Amino acid sequence: MLYANTTEKLRQLETELKVHGLWSSVPPSNEAMANTSPFSCDVMSFENWVQFIFIPKMEQLINAQNALPSNIAIAPMAHHVWSHQPHLHGLIKIFDELDRMLSEQ
Asked: Signal peptide location in the record (predicted)?
């Protein structure tokens, strides 16, 4: 059930990013993709990190039936980046729900 619910939240994130024009057809550079700083915030936008790092990593874990992270806190970054943009509060809500769901497993 956790895998199905997480997959649904990932789909919601993808849909919302696309609706708001934040989904990119161009991936970050190989150097940016290899960055290990939190959210790779010094080399790519948060929405690019979500699209190219977070969603694929979560999908890999789900597809392999590996344990999902239980100590996750992505919502605070979403609040930091998007809270001043009311039209993006739906994205923040999805991260709030995802963080809560994974932390309660």
From this structure: none
